[in-house]
Design a protein that fits this description.
Elements lengths: L4 H12 L7 H4 L47 H9 L1
Length: 84
């Protein structure tokens, strides 16, 4: 018999719930609070420490080799176009 979806969700949430024992500040003796529950400054203690996750790098596109993508016609070109 399979457990109900609610029981599976509850056990997963309970396992992933933050606690003071898993806090970076508590484990490195930097916490000044005497609380039994995680506070607003909770940070998980990971191998890389408090380093934020890597963000995507912005890649610039190369300049177009053809010059400007659009150019207005010169005065001479306009005069020729409308002279006819």
């Amino acid at each position: 018999m399979h457990p109900s979806p609610d029981a599976r969700t509850r056990s997963r949430n309970a396992a992933a719930a933050p606690s003071c024992d898993g806090c970076f500040f508590r484990r490195h003796m930097l916490c000044a609070l005497d609380r039994g529950e995680p506070c607003a400054t909770f940070r998980p203690d990971r191998e890389e420490g408090l380093r934020p996750p890597r963000q995507m790098a912005f890649a610039f596109r190369p300049e177009r080799a053809t010059g400007t993508p659009f150019a207005f016609p010169t005065a001479q070109e306009q005069a020729r176009r409308y002279a006819a």
